[in-house]
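In response to a reviewer's request, we include the raw inputs and outputs for one of the modeled complexes. The two entities were modeled together in a single run.
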Amino acid sequence: QKEVEQDPGPLSVPEGAIVSLNCTYSNSAFQYFMWYRQYSRKGPELLMYTYSSGNKEDGRFTAQVDKSSKYISLFIRDSQPSDSATYLCAMSKNYGQNFVFGPGTRLSVLP
Amino acid sequence: NAGVTQTPKFRVLKTGQSMTLLCAQDMNHEYMYWYRQDPGMGLRLIHYSVGEGTTAKGEVPDGYNVSRLKKQNFLLGLESAAPSQTSVYFCASSYSSNPRDLESGANVLTFGAGSRLTVL
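The model returned the following structure tokens for the whole complex.
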């Protein structure tokens, strides 16, 4: 079993839709949870991060963490064509160099 | 403000050939990383460096070597390329390795645009 699992997609939605992107993980030592956005032929960029359980909102984006279920989500409200990208979840413990990345979900928002 | 620059962007090799990927950052970051990205596998850490003159193995180091002779540069070498090393390689850097520094941005990874390597 992979340490971090993510729906591979691709996911296609119409403009304005609410998008839900999800990851599950197996290591209960993870404390920091991140979402990266990767446009085609580009490197990933950090979109949001959360620490431990709870919600965090930033504009149209909301990140949720449920540590009891080992499940994290990223919600995108009023999705735009510019949101079309691959979204990678990533996690880390309280210490150490290593981030563990999910395989990514490719999202297309159609005008 | 170039950030992280990777050279070359594309390369085709034959099995057994050698090559070096160069990563350069202009942000005075201490920490540098080499990842590979394969379909369905996510980003996997190959090697990393916690400062000039230091290197350490990541999750998938076999078949690769690295050097960090200057703080701003991190080189990834393939001594004898194999088809299994066909991938997109990303270099990243950060000021800090402490996850608690995410809040200040010091632990945010800045990635290069990637180097696509095909081994025939």
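As requested, we also summarize the result in words. The first strand of chain A starts at residue 4 and ends at 6. Chain A touches chain B at residues 4, 6, 8, 31-32, 34, 41-46, 49, 51, 88, 90, 92-104 (CB under 8 Å).
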